[in-house]
Amino acid sequence: MEVERVQAVASSILSKGAIPAEYIRPQQEQPSVTTYRGLVPKIPSVDLADADHEGLVRAVADASREWGLFQVVNHGIPAEVIAELQRVGKEFFELPTEEKEKYARPPGAQSLEGYGTRLQKNLDGKKSWVDHLFHKIWPPSSIDYRFWPANPPAYREANEEYAKHIQKVADKLFGCLSLGLGLEEDAMKKAVGGDDLQYNLKINYYPPCPRPDLALGVLPHTDLSALTLLVPNEVPGLQVLKDGKWIDAEYIPNALIVHIGDQVEILSNGEYRSVLHRTTVNKEKARMSWPVFLEPPMEWVVGPLPQLLANQEGKDHASGEPPKYKTKKFKDYMYCKLNKLPQ
After folding, report:
1. Are strands 45-47 and 69-73 parallel, antiparallel or unpaired?
2. Region 167-195: what's the mean pLDDT?
3. Which domain of life does the protein's organism represent (predicted)?
4. Prediction pTM value
């Protein structure tokens, strides 16, 4: 069974001030070279409790068009629920490697769920400075508890409680995205699976790295999800590409970071942007994040929404255009994305 052992590597070499060559990015990708240090616009922050609903819709839609990423505050998830999610996740990653490997993805499994799995092909032979756990948290019919750690004992309760709250946030965001395109409020959620929408949690653990100027936690990518709702810890590391510049995301306590994913870009026919982002690492502290990827069921067909396209009778959307994306099953899109094949 092959499992990434980044944490063990980090522990053994941290004091030496060097890292193996397979973790060193080419110069044109190194954070010390490519991170923008000048004055840049701040990543948008949206107050989900804003009483001005039209203003809220406009803020979400504008951020999704211009950035593809924004932070939400006053989202309604209690601070103690987020803190408990973080506590049990951190405790799991502090366990011995052999304990964590009990939850590794079985060889040959079709599902991506499990500990330490590599989700994408790495074509250049380089490695990312990250360890992770991946499993579904909603709907209940999709959950495989084999991949939910029994240790710490409160892990299941913390994740189930978080799953209840994150759905309400997702529904509000989908509604704003729909209204921002001049559609019915439920249009976007229906188009990505409705009540069958899959909520996939991935806990990322980035150990301290002796040369954070040379390595990356996660390479530049867009998410194949519809939306990604992410809880970070206090260690910065998320960067987004804006106008050709890699910009650091500010840490806002108890905020959620919202990524527009590929499926929403497709549904909106390119009006909303799937954001290109990456993760840097820290020399002194471990960085962690808890993204939840909202994805259609595997057999679900996704394509540009007909209401947004040109030549649609009854269309009231002023910028209707020909489709810019193919319509296909989500599983086929995922296969091409993970294997770096043309779409």
Report:
1. parallel
2. 97
3. Eukaryota
4. 0.90
